[in-house]
Write a structure and sequence with these properties.
The protein contains two helices and ten strands, in the order H-H-E-E-E-E-E-E-E-E-E-E. By secondary structure, it is mainly beta. The chain has a single domain, classed as Immunoglobulin-like (Sandwich). The strands form three sheets. A four-stranded antiparallel β-sheet has the order 3-5-8-7, with no helix packed on it. This is DUF1573 domain-containing protein. InterPro entries: DUF1573, Ig-like_fold.
């Protein structure tokens, strides 16, 4: 009986002493407000249309966060043949006050391969993001590339479209 009571006491202490675990994004957000997934109070979001392309940018904030502005966020390859490899290039410009870092680029499908700059982009500088699309399936295609960045948004989405014919 003493062993059972002792085991229950140990289990109770262990259960009560456990702290709530935090995920990495909450630690980053609490340590560095510039990496939160929202626009800083000093910043403002704007959307403009240039040659039919929609661009979303955040004007530079006062706290020194990077701001990613793209020449386009969507590319339409039009009608292409099945089995072909198609490439496009998105240009990202850092309109912020700190280095822009693209931490990762992941595609929504294995047929889409992004190639992004691995070094920080200085304020006022630009860099290409190349996206290769292998047309393996016939029909209308719409693929996203998600960039994980150190901007106020935290992520940026680029899209490639195509109508793939046999």
């Amino acid at each position: 009986m003493k062993k059972i009571v002792f085991a229950l006491a140990i289990a109770s202490v262990a259960f009560v002493s456990c702290k709530k675990s935090e995920d990495a994004s909450s630690k980053i957000s609490s340590e560095n407000p510039a990496t939160q997934n929202e626009v800083a109070p000093e910043a403002s979001a704007t959307t403009t249309t240039v040659d039919g392309q929609v661009e979303t940018a955040v004007t530079a904030s006062k706290d020194g966060t990077p701001v990613a502005k793209f020449n386009k966020t969507e590319h339409d390859f039009g009608t292409i043949k099945k089995g072909t490899k198609n490439e496009t290039e998105f240009i990202v410009t850092n309109n912020g006050n700190a280095d822009l870092v693209i931490i990762n680029a992941s595609a929504s499908c294995g047929c889409t391969v992004p190639d992004y700059p691995k070094t920080p982009i200085k304020p006022g500088s630009s860099a290409p993001i190349k996206v290769a699309f292998n047309a393996n399936t016939a029909g209308a295609q719409n693929k996203n590339v998600t960039l994980t960045t150190n901007t106020a948004n935290g992520t940026e989405i680029l899209t490639v479209k195509a109508n793939v014919e046999e």
